[in-house]
Structure formats: C-alpha cells, structure tokens
Write a structure and sequence with these properties.
Layout: H1 7-40, H2 45-71
Helix pairs in contact: 1-2
Keywords: Membrane, Transmembrane, Transmembrane helix
InterPro entries: TAXIMIN_1/2
Amino acid sequence: MGCECRPLGFLIGLPFMLVASLLSLIGVLLWIITVPLMFCCPCIICITLLAEFAVSLIKAPFDVITWFTEQIPC
C-alpha cells in the first residue's frame, strides 16, 4: 500500500522549494529571451539548449518537493 500523504517531507522540503522557485523565475526570464531567438534562427543549437535548460529551471520547484516527499517513509 502506498502512502500518499507525507506532510513531514513537504515541510522539510519547503525552504528548498522556495529557493527553487527563485531559480524558476530566472528560468522564466531565460525562456522569454530564448524563444524569440529560436524563431529568428532555429539553426543555432545553443539557443535550443538554453531554452531546454530554462524549462528545467521552471520545473525545479515541483521536482524538489516531489523528491523530498518521496524520501520520507510513511
């Protein structure tokens, strides 16, 4: 049986999720800059890699809190 409610993991991971949220804002700014550049010249691979990195930064808070809640047993 899986335990879906792990409030201790959520509370422990909350400060790290807040730091990841700041990184997510940086990711949003980076994504806003790189997407128009990809439309201007899609052949530049480094811009595509920067856009993928920006998306991973945007997903960071969710990944951090999921990792912390999975580490705490029921």
